[in-house]
């Protein structure tokens, strides 16, 4: 995958990680998309939207259907039907299904099947993982994107996508923790056995650090954000008390000199509070015992010293993930890149299952397994008999066909006859 264009815009219209002003959010989306279009020289019409883990619930789901005749092969329609059966859940009116992931299929008691298409059976089951979330968050996200003139192709839960980008196969298998430190909130996600097991959201993020700097130093939010980016350090022990810089203070005509260590103490106090809350929730479910440790993502993870501070609070191995692609070498781009990579890596059968969420039976993935007797010369299937009452016709004498003009299907059929003879 190559990144050919990047757009970045301040998240106006959001509070604590969720959309609260649809008009402002739509304007921000339009601006970011326009930047990416200009750099990539393409027009963007469809988007993949990442949604936060606020109040997301992870549940097990199971569906079963009768395929019919035991000689009938399982096809795309059967997969969509069994997925639709698994989605029949009694949800509270304020909740909506966000996503569904198939874990395994069962064909006539034969389990652990990844893709049942092409197999023969009379009963098909699907065991999967269901993700539900608040309708308000989902509706506001859809509305803002549509108001920006774009069409949603897929909604992806952000922590689920991040696991496919920032964790390797072993870390996803044995268990790891992802802490996404965004501007509006901090999200902790536990991944084990390649599945999202638990999420916790703390309604404090990078904006709270900026507010703390603004209040303590009596300076504007714009100046506080600039100080955080240019001189900020998450660990006061690493900061230098002798390095000073000017700060424009409200009500004073001359700037005030502030030390790097004093600024670091302000930042460290807020981060210790955030990490402390996350640590208590993770310890309650024994997630910190997982061998994969913690991976930090999000814009706040770019602060120097954040790894050392997190290691002190959590007592496990901590690292920061930074994308290697040109133009994206900052932790704040982790989620956007993860959402794209996650969607691109989905298997055909998973896309079929997800299509049951929208009720769209027209799958964009490849259709049923190709018939080996298909006419390869025209790349189209042989015409099927019409389902209409046949009209009586006069019998015509059979014509002998030139062997050189036999269809591809007849040649293949003849090959198998000779081979097995």
TrEMBL record:
<feature type="region of interest" description="Disordered">
    <location>
        <begin position="374"/>
        <end position="414"/>
    </location>
</feature>
<dbReference type="InterPro" id="IPR021873">
    <property type="entry name" value="FtsA_C"/>
</dbReference>
<protein>
    <recommendedName>
        <fullName>Cell division protein FtsA</fullName>
    </recommendedName>
</protein>
<dbReference type="Pfam" id="PF11983">
    <property type="entry name" value="FtsA_C"/>
</dbReference>
<feature type="domain" description="SHS2">
    <location>
        <begin position="1"/>
        <end position="166"/>
    </location>
</feature>
<keyword id="KW-0131">Cell cycle</keyword>
<dbReference type="Pfam" id="PF02491">
    <property type="entry name" value="SHS2_FTSA"/>
</dbReference>
<dbReference type="GO" id="GO:0032153">
    <property type="term" value="C:cell division site"/>
</dbReference>
<dbReference type="GO" id="GO:0009898">
    <property type="term" value="C:cytoplasmic side of plasma membrane"/>
</dbReference>
<comment type="similarity">
    <text>Belongs to the FtsA/MreB family.</text>
</comment>
<keyword id="KW-0132">Cell division</keyword>
<comment type="subunit">
    <text>Self-interacts. Interacts with FtsZ.</text>
</comment>
<dbReference type="Pfam" id="PF14450">
    <property type="entry name" value="FtsA"/>
</dbReference>
<keyword id="KW-0472">Membrane</keyword>
<dbReference type="GO" id="GO:0043093">
    <property type="term" value="P:FtsZ-dependent cytokinesis"/>
</dbReference>
<keyword id="KW-1003">Cell membrane</keyword>
<dbReference type="InterPro" id="IPR043129">
    <property type="entry name" value="ATPase_NBD"/>
</dbReference>
<dbReference type="InterPro" id="IPR003494">
    <property type="entry name" value="SHS2_FtsA"/>
</dbReference>
<dbReference type="InterPro" id="IPR020823">
    <property type="entry name" value="Cell_div_FtsA"/>
</dbReference>
<comment type="function">
    <text>Cell division protein that is involved in the assembly of the Z ring. May serve as a membrane anchor for the Z ring.</text>
</comment>
<dbReference type="InterPro" id="IPR050696">
    <property type="entry name" value="FtsA/MreB"/>
</dbReference>
